[in-house]
Structure formats: structure tokens, C-alpha cells
Amino acid sequence: MDLTDLPISAFIAPTGHNRAAVAPLLGQALRLALDYATQAVDHSPLPTEQPPLPATSLPEQGLPEQQLLAHLRTLITASMHPAHPGYIGHMDSLPTTMSLVGDLLSAAVNNNMLSIEMSPAFSRLEWATLRELAQLFGLGPRAGGLLLSGGSLANLEALAIARNHILDLSDGALTSLSTRPVLFASEAAHTSLQKAAMLLGLGNQAVIPVPLDTDGHLDTRRLPELIEQAQERGARPFCIVATAGTTVAGLIDPLAPIAAIARRYGLWFHVDAAYGGALVFSERLRPRLAGIEEADSLTFNPQKWLYVAKTCAMLLLRDSSLFSSAFRIPAPYMRQQPEETDPAAPPTNLGEIGLQGTRHSDILKLWLSLQHLGRRGYARLVEEGCRLASLAYARLRTLPELRFAHAPETNLLCFRAEPAWLPPAAHDALNARLQTALLEQERIFLSLPSYQGKRWLRAVLLNPYTDEEIIDRLQAALERLIAQEHQRGASQSRS
Fold first, then answer.
1. Domain for residue 177, yes or no?
2. Residue 95 domain-assigned?
3. 464 within a domain of the structure (yes/no)
4. CB contact burial 383-410 (16+ within 10 A = b; e otherwise)
5. How far is the C-alpha of 272 from the C-alpha of 277, rounded, in Å?
6. What pLDDT score does 335 carry?
């Protein structure tokens, strides 16, 4: 093939003849990554201004490497910086070092998780690793799972399998049903459930919201009533979804009682543990997930509290054979594997039993991170995050103007300023100003989610380098800023 119009470093030649040209480029890219990672504290957690984007038009002739590296520096500087210890607003953090190594090597090998033939080692590694994680959650000897690109896809496939299995839809068609399938989830459940219901042909109204109890959890006293009301209307309940780590407040639904209700009515029990599932690594905190072992399916995102670089999410099934019986579509263009006697080997090509066909080998960065940090290392990270959240809760409660949504159950803290000297209608705007001032003056980023019809400040104590000094600064800054707001308001009223 004639490659004369391509730069010599366009590819890494399998013969190695252009190694001398490629090595400096990769070396500079690695230095750029290290410079960013080791100097993230010098940037604001979230840039307040955005520079112009580099040209996006397709050039006739490829750009020089040095020009591209300069553009990369600009883009990185203008990006969100979750590695900053003051970035405590969302469920994002810096990735494990082994995540970077895993992604680099996965890209270099560029295997396709579509089939075992195209990813012989990684397919086996994924199936075996997720079987181990399913055992960690207590799902039983028949359990297993798949990686997907995000918790939304994991929830989608979980509901598809639940629908097909519980309603005995061998081909997934709804036309054979005389009643409308519905499922139940708390008012605080993730919006991906409504999207999944829409994509599955159920309609987003098929997700029946269960009110929250006074502590912010799915109200198990109301759940049976809602199930029976749906049955009386002629609907067909098929699934209950519990959340272990709600997005805004980090709360954990009462999993064991919900599991018992699901069994009583013959419904599938899915647990969206995309965030809070990480508690399973801590012997001390694992009891907060009591009942998760009863799940028929479970979503868990290592890209959150396990610090694995995006994307890395999984769906675990109590009975892994349902991947094949309730979801598999054989692909004639993929070589079929002979009968396997090794339990660690996947039963078929993973692309046939997952939502995605072509898929990046995310398993490498997950497996490397698990092996590098170990269960004890992850337990320490999870426990420290929860300790910091409890500490922040204790410190910030000394400020009388603050109201808290709930006491922290994970490493999330959700609060808002509601000073008596300001009309309630002005509280949302005050909290928005506090968010902006904290970022600009203290380089502390809190998110501003909507919850219970109001705007709240949310802290996620996730970054391993966020420490008590950040909590002290946050407390002092909030006290100062609220006092300044009070003084400003008093001055304006006098004038």
C-alpha cells in the first residue's frame, strides 16, 4: 500500500521500522499526561472561561505533531479537572494509574469484545472477573456479568432481560401481551429507567414512581399498595428497581424489604448500585447493602467509586444463563465457540449477549486496578470517603443557616442555605451564588442539583487527595459568604 501522503508516525509499523519516529511523539504525549496529572491542583476544578476551539475543518494536509500537541494542551487546560482536590461536585475522580496503563495497552492491542475470536484473552478475563465480582455481591454460584459503556446501558439491558424472562417473551415482542407491563422505582431513581422503558416500547410512564419516606428512601409501606393498584387497572407489574446510592443524596433504599416484596408478588428485583455498590469492598460498611445479595440483576459502575477510567460499568445477573436465554441474538458472522468445560470461559461471544457489539476492552483497566489496589485498598478508599462526609456533616451543621437533605449514608452530602433573613423564594438564587463564589474564590466546586423542587449544594467526597483541610476551607468560606450576603442584603434594605 502506498503511504506517501501519510506522516511517518501515522501508525506504529508492525515491523518496527518507524519506531524512532513514533517514540518521541508517544513520549511527549505521556509527558503531557503526566504534567496534567501532577499539576492539576494548579488549575481551577472547573474552568470559568473557555478559549476558542482549535480548527475543526478537515485539513488537506495533516498537521504537524507539534501543532497537534499544542492544541492538546489547550483542550486539556479547558477541561473539567476532577483530579483537583477541590473538585467535589460530581461522581467523578481521578483515575487509577493502572486505568491509564490499561487504556493505553487496550488501544494498542485494539481487540474487539464482539467475539471470543477477536478478543480471546480479554473475553475470558471479563467473564471470569465479573463472575468473581458477582460472588463478592453474594449473587450465588450461577451468577455472572458483562461490561457495558455506562450504567444507563446496564439498566436498559437489565430491564430487557427482566421483561423477556418474567413475561415469557421469547422474541421480546410486546404484541402478544394483552396488558401493559409496568415497573416500580423510587422518585429518586435514576432517569435512565425512564429512557430504558421508552426504548423497550413500554413508554416512560411505565415506570411507576414510589414516594420517598421521611428519610429519602423508597417507601416500602406504599410499594405493595401501588403494585396492587396497577394490577387492578389491568397493568402487568414485572419489576421493582431499588437504588443503592441515589444520584443526588447518595441514599440506599431498604434492599431486603424490597426484595421480600418482589418475591411476594413474583417480580424481578433489580438493584441500581451504580454508585453505592462500592461499599461491598468494606467489611465494616457492607451491611449498608444488606439485601443486595437477593437481586436478580445488579448495575455497578467501577468508573465511579472504584476510580476506573471511563467508561466502565457492568450488569450482573443472579442466573447468568439468562444472558443467552432471554437476550441472545446469534450473529452468523461470528465464529461460534465449542462447548466449554472451563467455568471461567464465556458461554458464547459476548457481543451476542450484550447490548453492544463492537466494544473496547475495558476489562483490562478494571482487572489491573482491582489487582493493583486490592480489596483492602478499595476498602480504605470507600471508608475514608464516608468518614469525610460524616466529618463535613458535623462541621457544616454548626452553621445555623444551612439545612441538610439527609444525614450522609455514603460519601455524599446534600445541603442548602436557607437563612431566615432572606425570603424562601430567594433561597435558590442564594445557593447558586454560593456555588459560584466557592469555585471562584476557593477553587472548591460543588454541584447544584434539583431535589424536592429546590436547588441544593452537593458535595461528593470521592477524590483520594481531598482532605480535612478542604472541609475546613469549605466551612470557613460558607460562613464568610453567607455573612457577606446578609450584610449586603441589610445594606440594600437600608438604602
1. yes
2. no
3. yes
4. bbbbebbebbbebbeeeebbeebbebbb
5. 8
6. 72
